[in-house]
Specification:
The structure holds 2 protein chains of 2 kinds. By secondary structure, chain A is mainly β. Chain A is built from no helices and 11 strands. In chain A, strands 2, 4, 5, 9, 10 and 11 form a 6-stranded mixed sheet that branches. Chain A has a 5-stranded antiparallel sheet with strand order 1-3-8-7-6, with no helix packed on it. The N and C termini of chain A lie far apart (37 Å). Chain B is mostly beta strands. In chain B, strands 2, 4, 5, 6, 9, 10 and 11 form a 7-stranded mixed sheet that branches. A 4-stranded antiparallel sheet of chain B has the order 1-3-8-7, with no helix packed on it. Classes of the chains: A mainly beta, B mainly beta. Chains A and B meet through strand 5 and strand 10 of A and strand 4 and strand 5 of B.
Chain lengths: 112, 111
């Protein structure tokens, strides 16, 4: 079993739709959680960190559920430009080097 | 300001050839990470440097992989006797705090 798991999708949604992605992690000692966005043939870019209290940035909302060991990303009013792969990443646990453990990524395709 | 840069951007190697991949981190960033990303997968950790010290190399898949950062700035990832399964994008990231900034990667194809 992988340490961080995501549904690879693809998620095909119309413009304006709300879409949610989940990501589960197995190491209960994990300390920090992130969502990255990766466009085709580009590098991952940080979309948002995920805090225990949940956090929102415009149309994007991230939540952490430590008890069930998952994080989520909600995108409201999706735009064509949101089409990308969304990677969740987890840091911490027994290793303190700061390395990120990534999920496989979830592909989102927003259609007109 | 300049971000993380990597060179070459693309590398085609014949099986058995040695390759060297370069990473120029953001100036002043103490932490440097190498990741390997296979097609359709998320990046997988290879190794970590804090300044010139290689503190974690647990992700290096075999002893054919070697990384160095002799002066605590530029880093080189070397792969000896390349195999087809080494074909992937090699990403470098640097960090001063929590956020890791990724370079554009080197796409390695081993024929």
């Amino acid at each position: 079993r992988k340490e961080v798991e995501q549904d690879p999708g693809p998620f095909n949604v119309p413009e304006g739709a709300t879409v949610a992605f989940n990501c589960t992690y197995s190491n209960s000692a994990s300390q920090s959680f992130f969502w990255y966005r990766q466009d085709c043939r580009k590098e991952p870019k940080l979309l948002m960190s995920v805090y225990s209290s949940g956090n929102e940035d415009g149309r994007f909302t991230a939540q952490l559920n430590r008890a069930s060991q998952y994080i989520s990303l909600l995108i409201r009013d999706s735009k064509l430009s949101d089409s990308a792969t969304y990677l969740c990443a987890v840091k911490g646990g027994s290793s303190n080097t700061g390395k990120l453990i990534f999920g496989q990524g979830t592909t989102l395709q927003v259609k007109p | 300001g300049a971000g993380v840069s990597q060179s070459p951007r693309y590398k085609v190697a014949k099986r058995g050839q040695d390759v060297a991949l370069r990473c120029d981190p953001i100036s002043g960033h103490v932490s440097l990470f190498w990741y390997q990303q296979a097609l359709g997968q998320g990046p997988e950790f290879l190794t970590y440097f804090q300044n010139e010290a290689q503190l974690d190399k647990s992700g290096l898949p075999s002893d054919r992989f070697f990384a160095e950062r002799p002066e605590g700035s530029v880093s080189t990832l070397k792969i000896q006797r390349t195999q087809q399964e080494d074909s992937a994008v090699y990403l470098c990231a640097s960090s001063l705090g929590t956020e890791q900034f990724f370079g554009p990667g080197t796409r390695l194809t081993v024929l």
